[in-house]
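Quick illustration, no need to memorize.
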Amino acid sequence: MLDAASLIAFNLGLLGALASPGPAIMAMLRAALSDGRRAGFLCGLGLATGAVSWSLLAVLGLTALFAVAPWAFVALKLAGAAYLIWLAVTLWRNASNASDFDAPTGVNGLKLGLLTNFANPKAVVFIAAIFTTVFPAMPTGTDAALVLANHFVLEILFYAAVTMGLTIPAIRQLYQKSKAFVDRAAAAMLGVMALRIAT
């Protein structure tokens, strides 16, 4: 039976991960600041879906598969790192281009969120570590469904709050003035993260 203390500890661990700088935060900055609120919300939806998918795989025992077949984890890491490098190069090359906040880029926001979290297979290991640290046993059945639903809602609320903050007109105007610098700094950080994931 799932207890409230374990669920609270699980949420605190997730919030710590969500708030730490990483590819997901970089994707949110890119979507919300460059493409507007709708893209930010859809990017958050994509990020939440990707993260909960890794949680589901952790519950189903993907970490055990990685232990048996380490090459699978290496392959996923390299594929994820390649995607992040591509994203960094694209961001760097377009840093000097003006943003169009009214452009219909919402679908791109969703794809950006999904691909960003799917590109980080270390997430499944991190999620599995939270599960094994917080819960006495890996949740199953209804308990697992409740934990996964809780995870999804927490991610959505977090990214919605971030999007609302990033799309305040004054913040967007500040971004427009320093877009080239911000985008290139974000691209450099994504490149470093890609190298860390690959190694």
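The chain has one domain: 4-98+111-198.
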